[in-house]
Structure formats: structure tokens, C-alpha cells
Amino acid sequence: MNLNSLDPISIHQKQQQTHRNQILSLIMKKQLKRVKNDNLPKYRLFSEASEEIRRFEKRFFIFLIILAALLYILFVKVNCLAQLSCCQLQGGFVRRY
Fold first, then answer.
1. What is the DSSP letter of 92?
2. Which pLDDT belongs to residue 55?
3. Quick check: 26 pLDDT over 80?
4. Coil vs helix vs strand at 94
5. Alpha-carbon dihedral of residues 41, 47, 49, 51, nearest 10 degrees?
6. In 3-state terms, what secondary structure has residue 96?
7. Which residues contact 87 (CB under 8 A, 6 or more apart)?
8. C-alpha to C-alpha distance for 23 and 40, rounded to whole angstroms
9. How far apart are CA 66 and CA 37, in angstroms?
10. Residue 19, Cα to own-chain centre: how many angstroms?
11. Is the model's pLDDT at 9 over the cut of 60?
12. What is the rounded CA–CA span in Å between residue 70 and residue 80?
């Protein structure tokens, strides 16, 4: 027989170790449950963020269309007006200097 196994101090230490292991296992189980429950709000936040990104993309796309229209008006239409201001109408014909 092993004398260490019958020693009251070693028996008490083993009981403490098993008690610690039980407490740690309970804590780990609770943390795992908490992690599983915490995933749902993260997915919800991710879906809200992706929805906000979609809204931003729509606004940005509309902004690009308006910007393209303004640039078209600025460079094409204003350029035509500038060319007309350099021209003279004489006798129904457009004549450039």
C-alpha cells in the first residue's frame, strides 16, 4: 500500500484539486454559454452595420450620378456656350473670328 494515498494532507489536497476542477469546469461551461449567447448580438450588429453600408453605397452612387451630371453640364454645355460667345451671327450664318 502506498502511504501517501492514506495521508490526510494528500487526501485533502486531492479533494481541493477536484473541487477546483469542478469549479473551473462550471466556469468554463458558463463562459461557453455566454459566448454562444453573445454571438447573436454580434450578428445583429453586423447586419445593422451591413445595412448602413448599403445605405451609404446608395447615397454615394446617387452622389456620383449628380457629380457626373454637373461635370457634363460644366464641360460640355458651358463649353458650347463659350464657343457661341466667341462667334458672331452675321446674315444667319455663324462666323468665328
1. T
2. 87
3. no
4. strand
5. -150
6. strand
7. 94, 95, 96, 97
8. 27
9. 45
10. 44
11. yes
12. 15
Q: How far is CA 48 from the centre of its chain?
A: 9
- Condensed to tens digits (0 to 9), the pLDDT of residues 51-94 reads 888 888 999 999 999 999 998 888 877 776 666 655 544 445 55
DSSP-assigned states of every residue in 33-45: HHHHHHHHHHHHH
Task: Give the model's pLDDT for residue 20.
Answer: 82
DSSP assignment of 27-91 equals: HHHHHHHHHHHHHHHHHHHHHHHHHHHHHHHHHHHHHHHHHHHHHHIIIIIHHHHHHHHTEEEET
Nearest to 37 by CA among 49, 48, 29, 26: 29
Here the cell at position 55 is 445605405
pLDDT at position 61: 94
Hey, what amino acid is at 83? Q
Query: For 81-90, how does the pLDDT look when each residue is reduced to its tens digit (9 = 90+)?
Result: 666 655 544 4
Grid cell digits, residue 9: 494532507
